[in-house]
Specification:
The chain has 221 residues and is an alpha+beta fold. It has one domain (64-219): Phosphatidylinositol 3-kinase Catalytic Subunit, Chain A, Domain 5, CATH 1.10.1070. The chain is 34% helix and 17% strand. The protein is built from five helices and eleven strands; from the N terminus they run E-E-E-H-E-E-H-E-E-E-H-H-E-E-H-E. Strand 6 and strand 7 form a beta hairpin. Helix 1 runs antiparallel to helix 4 and helix 2 (69-80) packs across helix 3. The model is unreliable at 1-6 (pLDDT under 50).
Length: 221
């Protein structure tokens, strides 16, 4: 790869890559986990340099989405399901000029998954406030797709496969799967624990979205 400056590299095909120095395995795990449901930049490992890179997806190759509603849905899911709460506006989101394509990148806050600090409480509907019917519907649809993607034995095997692939790369396990203290209790996260927690958060959000789109919390546009 050719160094262009500011952690930016370019391969022989002209594709751009950004060197990841913070928790690259966590970022790779999350990117691979949601890919196919959400629009995210791939995280790659280059054995020649021993470095991890985020690939800048050419947005013209991304399937057109529904203006800002899908971007809004993905932002909510990143924040409330994965506790990766720094994707807002143009921050860590690449968006096409027409607003119909986007790709998320930089998932370093995912290491705080177990802290659960930003997760919605059972009586908190603030994340629905002033939303349009389209955003409401897109969020519900995205959550259902993600739940189907990650549920059951198939979802668990998928997660285990990603984690096993990461074990073959240099460095420690992702922070999310290392022993840590959560709410004063020492835990050793497993794939089963992670899957259960992700699905619990998805179900909690879907519970909030059980309200009809014409509820007072939803804008009728």
């Amino acid at each position: 790869m050719r160094f262009l400056g500011l952690k930016v590299f370019q391969d022989i095909h002209g594709r751009l890559f950004y060197n990841i120095t913070k928790n690259p395995k966590d970022q790779m795990f999350l990117a691979r986990l949601v890919k196919g449901v959400m629009s995210v930049s791939d995280v790659l490992y280059d054995p020649d340099s021993g470095k991890y890179y985020s690939y800048e997806i050419p947005l013209d190759t991304v399937e057109p989405q529904g203006e800002n509603k899908d971007e809004y849905a993905d932002t909510l899911i990143m924040r409330y399901v994965f506790n990766d709460a720094d994707h807002m506006g143009i921050h860590n989101i690449a968006t096409s000029k027409d607003g119909k394509r986007h790709a998320f990148y930089d998932f370093e806050m995912f290491i705080h998954f177990w802290s659960n600090g930003d997760f919605i409480q059972t009586d908190d509907l603030s994340f629905l406030a002033h939303r349009t019917k389209e955003e409401y519907g897109a969020t519900k649809e995205r959550l259902i797709s993600l739940k189907n993607h990650l549920s059951g034995e198939g979802g668990r095997n998928f997660m285990t496969g990603i984690l096993n692939d990461l074990r073959t790369l240099p460095g420690d396990l992702p922070e999310v799967f290392r022993r840590q203290r959560v709410s004063g209790v020492e835990i050793q996260p497993t794939v089963e624990m992670f899957q259960d927690e992700v699905l619990r958060r998805i179900d909690a959000m879907l519970g909030h979205l059980a309200y009809e789109p014409n509820d007072k919390n939803i804008k009728n546009t």
